Amino acid sequence: xxxxxxxxxxxxxxxxxxxxxxxxxxxxxxxxxxxxxxxxxxxxxxxxxxxxxxxxxxxxxxxxxxxxxxxxxxxxxxxxxxxxxxxxxxxxxxxxxxxxxxxxxxxxxxxxxxxxxxxxxxxxxxxxxxxxxxxxxxxxxxxxxxxxxxxxxxxxxxxxxxxxxxxxxxxxxxxxxxxxxxxxxxxxxxxxxxxxxxxxxxxxxxxxxxxxxxxxxxxxxxxxxxxxxxxxxxxxxxxxxxxxxxxxxxxxxxxxxxxxxxxxxxxxxxxxxxxxxxxxxxxxxxxxxxxxxxxxxxxxxxxxxxxxxxxxxxxxxxxxxxxxxxxxxxxxxxxxxxxxx
Length: 341
Ligand SMILES: CC(=O)N[C@@H](CCCN)C(=O)O
Ligand SMILES: NC(=O)OP(=O)(O)O
Known about the structure:
By secondary structure, the chain is α/β, with parallel strands linked by helices.
């Protein structure tokens, strides 16, 4: 077996099914043992957060501490210098330090770097190619973990996978997974839905994307998801009628994201998301046609906009377990990257 040391965790697709399964299995075992053992004593996890976080930040810090490692966080512009990210630019504006120096320097201090950098939502190609994350990987001389980029949130996907493994006694294959779009006052990125679909398909689930036609995810993401589904004898279904999509679901994963029109006509996209499709809030009536589906959400969630109180406070909601599982999954990931299993 090749060493995973010095590997990055940027896109789920960089890691094969066996490696992902091994991480999920290890995460389950660590959870069961409430694992706290300084096996990574002396190591340090460095994190750069260009955007806010509750779960990612605390779950990674906690995971590192449980392994005996340290954790150090910077939020560019808040107590640290502001970073220029563009190449070849004349830095005579307000940005103080180039990412190229910053990442090289941080690499000299820490043993892995986590980065959160949401989609810019100005250029679709740039976002889907994850150009900023790819640059950081080039500058870094230690492994880089994607803590939510423009294209993906692979750490969330690990926790989602662990949650579904637990919920279906290690056998989620064949279960119906519905990712449902929902309204939201803000144009949110597509990283979480992209990753949620991929992990569900790779676990062999029957994957349905439920969304208004204008909110469809990009084919550059959907095509590989479809291929994963086919490998398991399933097909990726896209359903524009929410009620039809929910029928007999075993999992409903709620999430809002901005439709691709946000790149070309943001005002129209805003109207679609907040007015035209305001009725897509996930509620008890929709959930009643499922097979007592587990309700999942990555959080943070806006109550009674994305999903009703009744669903979030109901028996099927597993979003708090899902958030807890971030910590266990990432503990396993850190151990993998540091060659500790
Ligand atoms: C509200 C918001 O900005 N949500 C972000 C973060 C979700 C989890 N990290 C999103 O939708 O991608
Ligand atoms: N789900 C998630 O990544 O949460 P945070 O944005 O709070 O880190």
